[in-house]
């Protein structure tokens, strides 16, 4: 059974392209264009990974990520934040995201990030481990 990825992106064109690339790579994909739609879907079906835009018309991806990571029902879900505006380090630390993709992004790089996070290579955890080992 294919791994389920939920793409939360308000830009319809980006959402379509990301969904297409992920489906072609063998993933099952669910999409949402708003925070409201996302919360309704994630309450019923828990994906292995969420690709989450920061700026949504009715919510903030960083706050959504933080909420998911502090909820015992959803804290196991890997999350990659996508943004054209947020700095990677701040996003990873503030939201506890597993990865970050800066927009605009190369589709091959996006797919590699998805594979890396799904295979347990968590950018945030790796940075925290390095940071703690340096202290």
What tags apply to this protein structure?
135 residues; alpha/beta; five-stranded parallel sheet; two-stranded antiparallel ribbon; 6 helices; 7 strands
Provide the fold topology.
Elements: E1 4-8, H1 12-24, E2 28-32, H2 35-42, E3 49-53, E4 55-56, E5 59-60, H3 61-69, E6 78-83, H4 88-95, E7 99-102, H5 107-118, H6 123-134
Parallel strand pairs: 1-2, 1-3, 3-6, 6-7
Antiparallel strand pairs: 4-5
Structure description:
- The chain has 135 residues and is α/β, with parallel strands linked by helices.
- 46% of the residues lie in helices and 21% in strands.
- A hairpin with a 2-residue loop joins strand 4 and strand 5.
- The longest helix is centred in the N-terminal third of the chain and has 13 residues, at 12-24.
- The protein is globular.
- Mean pLDDT is 87; it is low at 125-135.
User: Using DSSP, what is the number of strands?
Assistant: 7
H/I helix tally: 6
- What's the shape? globular
Largest sheet: 5 strands, parallel
Q: Write the element-wise H/E pattern from the N-terminal end onward.
A: EHEHEEEHEHEHH
Into which percentage range does the β-strand content fall? 15-25%
- Report, as a whole number of angstroms, the end-to-end distance: 42 Å
Spatially, the strands of the biggest sheet line up as 2-1-3-6-7
């Amino acid at each position: 059974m294919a791994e389920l990825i939920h793409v939360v992106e308000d830009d319809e064109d980006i959402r379509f392209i990301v969904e297409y690339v992920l489906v072609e790579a063998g993933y099952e994909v669910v999409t949402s264009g708003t925070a409201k739609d996302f919360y309704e879907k994630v309450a019923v079906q828990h994906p292995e990974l969420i690709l989450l835009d920061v700026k949504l018309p009715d919510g903030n991806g960083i706050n959504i990520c933080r909420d998911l990571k502090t909820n015992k029902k959803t804290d196991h879900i890997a999350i990659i934040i996508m943004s054209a505006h947020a700095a990677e380090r701040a996003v990873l630390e503030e939201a506890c995201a597993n990865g970050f993709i800066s927009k605009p992004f190369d589709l091959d790089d996006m797919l590699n990030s998805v594979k890396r996070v799904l295979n347990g290579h968590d950018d945030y955890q790796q940075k925290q481990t390095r940071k703690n080992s340096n202290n």
